[in-house]
Amino acid sequence: MGDRFDVIVIGAGPAGSSAAYNLAKKGFRVALIERGRKPGSKNMFGGRVYAKPLEEAFDGLGKAPIHRWVVKERLSIVNKEEYVTVEYTGRGRKSFTTYLTDLTDWMAGRAVDAGATLITEVVVDRLLMRDGRVAGIVSGDDELEADVVVDAEGVNRLVLERSGLVERLTLRHVALGVKEVIKVDKGDIEKFFGLGEDEGLAWVFMGSVSDGLPGGGFFYTNRDSLSLGLVIYLEGAVQGMRRHIYDMVEELRIGPLFSRYVENGRIMEYSAHMIPADPRAIRPPRLVWDGLIVTGDAAGLLINMGYTYRGVDTAAYSGMLAAKAIEEADGDYSASRLKRYEEMLRNSYVGRDLEKFRGVHDLYMNPRLFNEYPALLTGLLRRLYEFDYEGYKFSKAFSEARRGLVSLPRIFLDLLEVYRKL
Length: 422
Ligand SMILES: Cc1cc2nc3c(=O)[nH]c(=O)nc-3n(C[C@H](O)[C@H](O)[C@H](O)COP(=O)(O)OP(=O)(O)OC[C@H]3O[C@@H](n4cnc5c(N)ncnc54)[C@H](O)[C@@H]3O)c2cc1C
Description:
It is a single chain. By secondary structure, the protein is α+β, with helices and mostly antiparallel strands. The chain has 3 domains: 4-66 and 98-169 and 281-357, FAD/NAD(P)-binding domain (3-Layer(bba) Sandwich); 174-276, D-Amino Acid Oxidase, Chain A, domain 2 (2-Layer Sandwich), CATH 3.30.9; 371-421, no CATH class. It is 36% helix and 28% strand. The strands form 3 sheets. Strands 3, 4, 5, 6, 11, 12, 13, 14 and 15 form a 9-stranded mixed sheet that branches. The mean pLDDT is 93. The structure holds flavin-adenine dinucleotide (FAD).
C-alpha cells in the first residue's frame, strides 16, 4: 500500500462510504478500504431504507438504486397455519426497497467521485498504534498511516477486538439473519399487492415462524423480486433451536403465508449475515480514541423499533457526523477533540431513537410473544369467525382461547411492558 492519507476508513459499507464521501468532498485525502471484491459484495440486509438521512449524508439520492417506495406495511402474527395481519396503506414515500449490495456500491461510488481512493480486496487486521494513539492500519505485512482512522467495519468489529479496544462478541450480542431473493414477474408484484409501478410493500411477521424463539421474519417487494427472510436471536437459539434456519426459511416460502406469491418465482440469491441483537450490549465503551472514530454497526447504532430495523440510515448518518467531527477537529485528532462526534450523535435523531427504543430487545426476550400470544390471538379470531350456526360472545371466545396459555394478570403486565418499551 505504501502511501499516506489524511484519513483511512475501514469498510465500504453505508457508514464508511458516507464518511469517505463527506471527507473527500471537503478535500481530505481519504483511503476507503474494503475486504470485498467490490463495495457491497459482503453486504446483506432485509430490504428497506429510510430516505431522508441518506439524502442528507449523500447530498441527494441522485442515481441511487431505488426499487420501490414503500406505501404498504403489513404486520402478521403467525401461529402455524393461522395468522392475523394488520395492514396500513399510506402515501408517505418515506422509505424505499433496494438491494444493499447495489446501494452500497452507489454510496462508495459517490465517495470515489468526490475524490476518495477505494482499495478493495484488502482485509484490515488491526489498528496501527504509535505512542499510545491510532496511527493507521495493519493488513498482513503492510502498514498504512493516516492522521485519523474511521472504523466502519460493521457488526463483527474484529479490528477493534484484535486491537484490544472491545470485548469479544458473544451469542447475547448478535442475531442471525438469513434471506432469499426470489425473482418474480414485476406485474405480478403489482397485481398481488395492489401496488403502482414504483410502489412497494414492507411486511414483517413473528410467532411460530421462528419456532417460538426470539426473532421474526421480513418480506419486501423489490422491482421484480421479493426478499424473504428470518432473523433469529442466537442467545435463545443455542438451547432452543430444533431445525436449521435455512429449513425454517424454506418452510416459510412454501407455507400458507407466502407460497402463492412465490410459486412461479426463481430463487436468485441466498445470503446470511449477523445483525446486532442488543445494540446497547454491542456498543463499545466509547466511540472515540486518540486518532480513531467508530461508526455504524461497529458502534452499535442499529435501531430495532420492534416492527422494523433501521441500520443503513443510521450508519450513513453516523459516517457523515464522523466526517464533520474530523473537519471540526482541525488537525488535532485527540480523543478529547473527537468527542464532539459522540456529542453530535447523541443530539441527532440517531441518539434520540436509540434511547427511545432501547427497551425493545428486552421485549424480544419474552418467550410469550412468540408462543402463547400468537396462539391466543389466532384462537380468539378462529372462535369469533369460524362457526356453522351459533357464534361466540367475545368474552367467552377470549377466555377459552386464553385457557392454559396465559393468565389475565400476566396479559396485563405484558401489555404494560409493551406500552412502556415501544
Ligand atoms: C438480516 C438483516 C436485515 C436487515 N434489515 C435492515 C433493513 O431492512 N433496513 C435497514 O436500514 N437496516 C437493516 N439491517 C441492518 C443494516 O444492514 C446494517 O445496520 C448496516 O448495513 C450497517 O452498515 P455499516 O456500514 O455499519 O456496516 P456494514 O454494512 O456491515 O459494512 C461494513 C463493511 O466493512 C467491510 N469490512 C468488514 N471488516 C473489514 C476489514 N477487516 N477490512 C476491510 N473491510 C472490512 C465489510 O466487507 C462491509 O463492506 C439488516 C441487517 C440484517 C443482517
